[in-house]
Amino acid sequence: MTGGIAPEADVSHHGHVSLWGSGLGVWVQSVDHGPSNLAGVTVRVRTSLSLSGRQEFPESCLQADRQTVLCRTGELRTDVPEGRQLALELQLAGRPDEVVVRVDTLWNGGATDRNPKNNDHEVLAPATGDEYVF
């Protein structure tokens, strides 16, 4: 932020989720469509059911509570169209028939995002092992 004016950046998250047994896979691609580059973004992944016990996360992620994982993307530049990839393999408590997964931006460096609809998603994933796209 320079001169008291917030930069503008259109962050988007797209990907898919898959539920099989107690395993939940979440794959997210985060992209900055500009016009400003971002030093980093925090992606929030929330599940409608609790995660079980100890989870293994990528170095950039941590568990915020029983249903929420937070991941930092690192720098998002407008000249990198593939953005940053995130892959989570989570374990849910029990073996649910379905789960709702919410993916959104928790923090984007204070930038103004005039198109938040492409970074705020909710997807229902039945326990079929299929990929459900968002």
Topology:
Layout: E1 9-20, E2 23-35, E3 42-47, E4 61-65, E5 68-72, E6 84-91, E7 98-107, E8 121-126, E9 132-133
Antiparallel strand pairs: 1-2, 1-9, 2-6, 3-5, 3-7, 4-5, 7-8
Structural notes for this entry:
The chain is mostly beta strands and 134 residues long. The chain has a single domain (10-125), classed as Immunoglobulin-like (Sandwich). It is 0% helix and 50% strand. The chain is built from no helices and nine strands. The chain has strands at residues 9-20, 23-35, 42-47, 61-65, 68-72, 84-91, 98-107, 121-126, 132-133. The strands form two sheets. A five-stranded antiparallel sheet has the order 4-5-3-7-8, with no helix packed on it. Strands 6-2-1-9 form a four-stranded antiparallel sheet, with no helix packed on it. A hairpin with a 2-residue loop joins strand 4 (61-65) and strand 5. The protein is elongated, with a radius of gyration of 15 Å. It starts with 8 loop residues before the first strand and ends with a strand. The model has no long low-confidence stretch (mean pLDDT 96).
Structure in a nutshell:
The chain contains no helices and nine strands. By secondary structure, it is mostly beta strands.
